[in-house]
């Protein structure tokens, strides 16, 4: 696979399989500080006078006395956004900017086929594995094998009452995984009637369409003691190809940053190193083939027989401008995948008595996604002189063996990856009151995710047998292996990934027996000229590579909560408490195809069956001590805490805790704070994944274009590494070589580590909430958060592995131990990426949330809503003692200094008008380390990527009490991606128009 953009910092992402590079736009988001009191109580928000249960606690307490900083997004806000993709909507929240969207798992960005079209939340840029996703306060089965990340596509949009986003470790309340915080989806309960909702939208360019329909029906019975609700929704998103956005402003892939041709080797420190160019083509490769007949490694002819025009070579880059080579801008597949989902939910409850309420929930979600990525290609493959198609095309020009310098096989069909996911989740339980001051809940949750994913790949022995086509002696063409007496497929390629068999020094060829077919069955493949391959030959060479994933989760939980009101009270009221126990088991199983497991495929890496499971037994307790209440200078004063003891079958015992406090001298102002110790146990993939092959690009940190870009020790370490191989560091230039791992993906290995232990996090928050009585309707909350993770589990990408190797104080480190270089070229030749407890993450910042609601006379009601963030720190230390990797301001980490959303809603009579803005400040085009080491890496005008400004507008009209029509536009002013970027800082979809309706039939 070829690279569109430099690899991002995967330490802040879910693992290497779905690293993301693009940010798609969405619509206005509003963060309330607490849930609206007028809403019906959810499963975890039981009304009890003036107290509620809010995310982050199991204790009922006054709504204004919650110590946790929570941003809540209600159903109305989600609907006003015009988004039908929840992750797209939530990724506008400053806390969730780093979330993985459908566009991050599409086209050339897609990793494993099983992740195509997935949507995963990433809180505070600390990784999807550190973001705990709950539904009604209960865990949800994962959507990615070996991971805790939940596919948000499975959450029913129209059943949501609100979404709570809690920053800070919540392990003491909910268990492991939520070291960065919790996202809790609160579902509607006791719905009655029939509600319909439909929406359709399309970009102003007539593509990127979406259709959505939702139906919810509910009925109360037995005088309101029972309820049954059934909900179904369907959504379909059209595929958006990057080909539909060529010459779209100055965005990628049409524009691309390459070495400045006025100073291609960075000799002048006053000349920018990289500038954007347009019209780039991959050097020495063509859709019909670039053939070298005299073996001087310079293309002589195209596959169609035309004298090859190489164009003008771009120095120190694998590109040319003009000529017959393949345009790089047509290469990268989809921006957004095609996706379709069905979600059905059944909710039922019945109150037998105040002491016993039975409840049950069932969900079935089915989603399908597919994406087109890149064509397969060949580089530096030998074609033997007696090849029949070679001689038919070039005749007397053939003087011996020829070299296929490059062919981009667009006529083979673009690689397509498909994922078909099925998620089942069920909850059964009972709750009720025990006497006057105690209540209980007992529940069992089961979840299962099954995924079938497929892609197309060439079978290695079949392909090299098919292109070795010779005369059959009767005027036809056959494969050499079909001829009598031939037992071995012979081939030769200069790249390790483009060889079959073992090298025979006598013949100078790689040779191997046919293992997937019998001699005589081979169909010859003509690769000379675009459109030359026959369908029969392609059918012989290609197979569907099918993999299956099965994830299961079982959770049994019981708790008792209450207070001491019947026998003891403090001046602030009774002491509230909750105690409970939980058992959870998780298992995952991955089954690759027989083709993959045997390592028979040319275009995908070898992978093995793996499975793993663990269980954990836990007990927990929580207390809230209201010291004072409703006294002068002590409207409320309370302290609280929680603790959880866990026993894992994999890592043993862990203890997590938290303490908190709330002080409100008067009702207008509340001070609050939390301090906690959280843990994340290694997930199943990190522990048990079998070592499997993986293809990755590796921009070499020791190349002459990068050797000064890292830490102060990089250049000395690179000199030592290359010098030991006898290679001159001053001329070492992998970037300028088309077959180096920088420009052609390298096969390495990735696997788990059974020696992992838990990572721990110390988190604290401190804030103030203002509700001034002299400004009715105004509420402002400001909270500082600080999260520090130690012994963090870090799985570097291959590029990070290479950089970390030489950016440490010495080359005697765990990263260099997992890397090897070719003794002849010096290029990286093999790597092993696996997780280890070696890293640390630090982040801190300020969240500010404001809501102001005012009704000025007869002019209707205005509601202004703002959620903003100041990011003070986002740092990563790969190993103890290593230099700090500061990611604040970096676009690759989606870490702007300032970010926020704002919207203003005006409601007048039957009309409602909403205007929203999504914003984040400028970010660096290159990493901070690169910029600090190389201040002239680009010119000042390109050093920063422009800020994100997206404007949204929605108008809704109530036609009577039971019908609402609405229409709107997202990205109202058609903001475009920045120079050389295909999807950042805004989506390439552009201005998006939609319309919909809501109807309550009865």
Question: How would you explain this protein's 3D organization?
Answer:
The chain has 1002 residues and is mostly beta strands. It has a 22-stranded antiparallel barrel. It has a five-stranded mixed beta sheet with strand order 3-6-7-4-5. It is built from 13 helices and 52 strands.
Write down how many β-strands occur, each being a DSSP E stretch of 2 or more residues. Answer: 52
Looking at the chains present, what oligomeric state does this protein adopt? single chain
- Helix percentage: under 10%
Q: Kindly estimate the percentage of residues that lie in beta strands according to DSSP.
A: 35-45%
Largest sheet: 22 strands, antiparallel, barrel
| First-residue to last-residue Cα separation | 55 Å
List strands and helices in order, with pairings.
Blueprint lengths: L50 E2 L8 E2 L7 E5 H7 L4 H5 L40 E5 L2 E2 L20 E8 L3 H4 L6 E7 L5 E11 L6 E12 L4 E12 L2 E2 L13 E5 L14 E5 L1 E3 L7 E3 L8 E2 L9 E3 L4 E3 L12 E3 L1 E16 L2 E17 L4 E7 L4 H7 L7 E7 L7 E19 L3 E21 L1 H8 L1 E3 L5 E3 L9 E3 L10 E3 L4 E4 L22 H7 E22 L12 E16 L2 H4 L12 E22 L2 E15 L3 E15 L2 E12 L3 H5 L3 E5 L17 H11 L21 E5 L8 E12 L7 E17 L3 H10 L6 H4 L1 E3 L6 E6 L2 E19 L6 E17 L7 E2 L11 E11 L2 E10 L2 E2 L3 H6 L6 H4 E2 L2 E11 L4 E8 L21 E9 L2
Parallel strand pairs: 4-7, 38-42
Antiparallel strand pairs: 1-2, 3-6, 4-5, 6-7, 8-9, 8-52, 9-10, 10-20, 11-19, 12-13, 14-18, 15-16, 15-23, 17-18, 20-21, 21-24, 22-23, 24-25, 25-31, 26-27, 28-30, 29-30, 31-32, 32-33, 33-34, 34-35, 35-36, 36-39, 37-38, 39-40, 40-43, 41-42, 43-44, 44-45, 44-46, 46-47, 47-50, 48-49, 50-51, 51-52
């Amino acid at each position: 696979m070829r690279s569109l953009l430099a690899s991002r910092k995967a330490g802040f992402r879910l693992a290497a399989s779905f690293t993301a590079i693009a940010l798609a736009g969405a619509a206005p988001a509003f963060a309330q500080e607490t849930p609206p009191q007028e809403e019906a109580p959810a499963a975890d928000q039981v009304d009890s006078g003036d107290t509620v249960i809010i995310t982050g606690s199991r204790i009922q307490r006054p709504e204004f006395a919650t110590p946790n900083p929570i941003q809540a997004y209600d159903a109305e806000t989600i609907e006003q956004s015009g988004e039908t993709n929840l992750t797209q909507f939530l990724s506008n929240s400053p806390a969730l900017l780093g979330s993985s969207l459908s566009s991050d798992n599409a086209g050339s960005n897609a990793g494993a086929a099983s992740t195509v079209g997935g949507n995963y939340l990433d809180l505070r840029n600390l990784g999807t594995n550190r973001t705990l996703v709950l539904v009604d306060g209960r865990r949800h089965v994962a959507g990615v094998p070996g991971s805790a990340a939940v596919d948000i596509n499975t959450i029913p949009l129209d059943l949501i009452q609100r979404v709570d986003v809690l920053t800070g470790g919540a392990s003491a309340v909910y268990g492991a995984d939520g070291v960065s915080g919790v996202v809790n989806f609160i579902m509607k309960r006791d719905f009655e009637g029939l509600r319909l909702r439909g929406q359709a939208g399309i970009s102003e360019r007539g593509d990127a369409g979406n259709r959505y329909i939702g139906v919810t029906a509910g009925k109360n019975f037995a005088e309101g003691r029972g309820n049954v609700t059934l909900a179904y929704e369907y959504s379909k998103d059209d595929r958006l190809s990057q080909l539909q956005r060529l010459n779209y402003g100055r965005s990628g892939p049409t524009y691309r940053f390459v070495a400045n041709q006025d100073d291609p080797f960075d000799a002048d420190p006053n000349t920018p190193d990289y500038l954007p160019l347009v019209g780039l083509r991959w050097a020495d490769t063509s859709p019909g083939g670039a053939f070298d007949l005299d073996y001087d490694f310079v293309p002589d002819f195209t596959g169609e027989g035309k004298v090859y025009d190489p164009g003008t070579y771009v120095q120190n880059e694998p590109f040319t401008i003009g000529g017959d080579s393949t345009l790089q801008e047509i290469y990268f597949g989809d921006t957004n995948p095609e996706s379709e989902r069905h979600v059905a939910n059944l909710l039922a409850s019945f109150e037998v008595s105040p002491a016993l309420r039975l409840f049950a929930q069932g969900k079935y979600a089915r989603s399908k996604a597919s994406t087109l990525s890149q064509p397969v290609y060949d580089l530096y493959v030998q074609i033997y002189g007696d090849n029949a198609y070679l001689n038919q095309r070039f005749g007397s020009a053939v003087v011996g063996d020829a070299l296929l310098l490059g062919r981009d096989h667009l006529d083979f069909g673009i690689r397509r990856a498909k994922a078909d996911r099925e998620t089942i989740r069920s909850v059964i339980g009972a709750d009720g009151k025990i006497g006057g001051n105690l209540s209980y809940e007992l529940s069992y949750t089961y979840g299962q995710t099954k995924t079938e994913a497929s892609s197309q790949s060439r079978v290695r022995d079949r392909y090299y047998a098919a292109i070795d086509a010779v005369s059959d002696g009767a005027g036809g063409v056959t494969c050499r292996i079909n001829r009598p007496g031939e037992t071995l497929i012979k081939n030769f390629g200069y790249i390790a990934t483009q060889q079959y068999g073992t090298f025979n020094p006598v013949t100078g060829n790689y040779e191997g027996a046919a293992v997937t077919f019998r001699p005589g069955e081979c169909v010859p493949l003509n690769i000379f000229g675009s459109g030359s391959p026959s369908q029969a030959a392609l059918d012989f060479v290609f197979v569907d590579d099918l993999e299956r994933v099965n994830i299961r989760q079982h959770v049994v939980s019981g708790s008792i909560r209450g207070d001491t009101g019947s026998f003891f009270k403090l001046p602030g009221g009774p002491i509230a408490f909750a105690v409970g126990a939980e058992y959870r088991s998780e298992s995952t199983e991955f089954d690759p195809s027989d083709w993959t497991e045997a390592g028979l495929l040319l275009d995908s890496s070898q992978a093995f069956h793996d499975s793993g499971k663990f269980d954990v037994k836990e007990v927990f307790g929580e207390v809230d001590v209201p010291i004072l209440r409703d006294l002068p200078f002590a409207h409320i004063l309370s302290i609280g805490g929680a603790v959880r003891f866990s026993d894992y079958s994999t890592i043993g015992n862990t203890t997590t805790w938290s303490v908190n406090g709330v002080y409100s001298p008067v009702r207008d102002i509340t001070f609050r704070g939390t301090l906690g110790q959280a843990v994340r146990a290694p997930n199943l993939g990190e522990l048990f994944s079998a070592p499997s092959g993986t293809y990755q690009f590796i921009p070499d940190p020791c190349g002459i274009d990068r050797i000064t870009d890292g830490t102060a020790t990089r250049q000395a370490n690179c000199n030592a590494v290359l010098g030991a191989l006898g290679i001159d560091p001053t001329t070492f230039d992998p970037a300028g070589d088309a077959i180096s791992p920088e420009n052609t993906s390298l096969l390495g290995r990735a696997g788990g580590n059974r020696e992992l232990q838990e990572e721990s996090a110390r988190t604290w928050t401190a804030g103030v909430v203002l509700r001034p009585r002299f400004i009715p309707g105004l509420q402002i909350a400001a909270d500082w958060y600080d999260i520090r993770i130690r012994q963090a589990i870090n799985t570097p990408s291959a590029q990070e592995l290479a950089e970390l190797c030489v950016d440490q104080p010495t080359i005697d480190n765990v990263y260099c131990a997992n890397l090897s270089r070719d003794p002849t070229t010096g290029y990286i030749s093999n790597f092993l990426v696996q997780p280890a407890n070696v890293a640390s993450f630090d982040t801190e910042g300020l969240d500010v949330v404001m809501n102001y609601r005012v009704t000025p006379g007869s002019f209707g009601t205005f509601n202004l809503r703002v959620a903003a963030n100041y990011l003070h720190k986002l740092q990563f230390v790969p190993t103890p003692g290593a230099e700090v990797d500061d990611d604040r301001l970096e676009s690759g980490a989606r870490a702007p200094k300032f970010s926020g959303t704002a919207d203003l809603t005006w409601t007048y009579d039957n009309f409602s008008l909403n205007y929203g803005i999504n914003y984040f400040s400028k970010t660096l085009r290159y990493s901070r380390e690169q910029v600090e080491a190389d201040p002239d890496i680009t010119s000042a005008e390109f050093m920063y990527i422009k800020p994100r400004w997206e404007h949204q507008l929605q108008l809704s009209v109530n036609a009577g009490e039971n019908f609402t029509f609405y229409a709107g536009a997202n990205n109202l002013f058609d903001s475009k991606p920045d120079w050389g970027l295909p999807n950042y800082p805004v989506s390439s979809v552009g201005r998006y128009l939609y319309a919909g309706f809501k109807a309550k039939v009865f």
